[in-house]
Specification:
This protein has 9 helices and no strands. By secondary structure, the chain is mostly helical. The chain has a single domain, classed as Orthogonal Bundle (MetI-like fold), CATH 1.10.3720. This is Cysteine ABC transporter permease.
Length: 233
């Protein structure tokens, strides 16, 4: 009935078209001014945390291994939404108040660090031990072997899953709307609260997320294709 009314009522069609057109620019601005920068910053910081955590996990120092295991276990064992709430709404109860942007960056970075550390650790462990032995046999130190031999190979292995993680983070940033950060979905909520066309506005926001993710998936496919050619040669 709802869809049939849309297709038969010209006044209703004009109304919905006006809403879509008027809300499109604010939603796109929310994506490019807030969602994408938040994703890039959080992923970059999370990647640094992931590398550090992965190195702690594969080190022979039990203290480092234990700290890394606890960190990964806590982050992977609790919902991201709860983590954001603890940072933004919980910490002020102990005198620590953080603005929405910094809270979102902290939450997403910690989350990415834990999950991506497992990807990086698996990529490093996938390199045959013979590579380590060969590099050390020619006089390389442990760090030199990592930097010159292991990391370049592990990078090629980890890029596909890390790319998927990045695309997933684009969608997860919608959770930042719950801590009042003005990203894409927050903009959609504010627009919908004014015109009460929640289905229409949220569907438009979902379409923008989808377009961004499709574009990133295309880039990911091209990068993976180039890496395959490089490896094959």
């Amino acid at each position: 009935m709802f869809l049939s009314n849309i297709f038969t009522d010209s006044a209703m069609q004009e109304k919905y078209i006006d809403i879509l057109v008027s809300s499109f620019l604010p939603l796109v601005k929310g994506a490019f001014y807030y969602t994408i920068p938040l994703t890039l910053i959080s992923f970059a910081i999370g990647l640094v945390l992931a590398i550090i955590t992965a190195m702690m996990r594969i080190s022979g120092i039990k203290l480092f291994q234990g700290i890394a295991r606890v960190y990964v276990s806590i982050i992977r064992g609790t919902p991201l939404l709860v983590q954001l709430y603890i940072i933004f709404y919980g910490l002020p109860s102990v005198g620590v108040t953080i603005n929405p942007l910094i809270s979102a960056i902290i939450g997403f970075s910690l989350n990415m660090g834990a999950y991506n550390s497992e990807i990086i650790r698996a990529a490093i462990l996938s390199i045959p031990k013979g590579q380590w032995e060969a590099s050390q046999s020619i006089g390389m130190t442990y760090l030199q072997s990592l930097r010159r031999v292991v990391f370049p190979q592990a990078t090629r292995v980890s890029i596909p899953p890390l790319s998927n993680s990045f695309i997933g983070l684009i969608k997860d940033t919608s959770l930042a709307s719950t801590i009042t950060y003005g990203e894409l979905f927050r903009q959609a909520q504010e627009i919908a609260s004014q015109n009460y066309e929640f289905l229409l506005v949220y569907t438009e926001a979902a379409a923008i997320y989808w377009i961004i993710c499709v574009g990133l998936s295309f880039v990911q496919d091209r990068v993976e294709t180039r890496l395959e050619r490089y490896v094959s040669t």
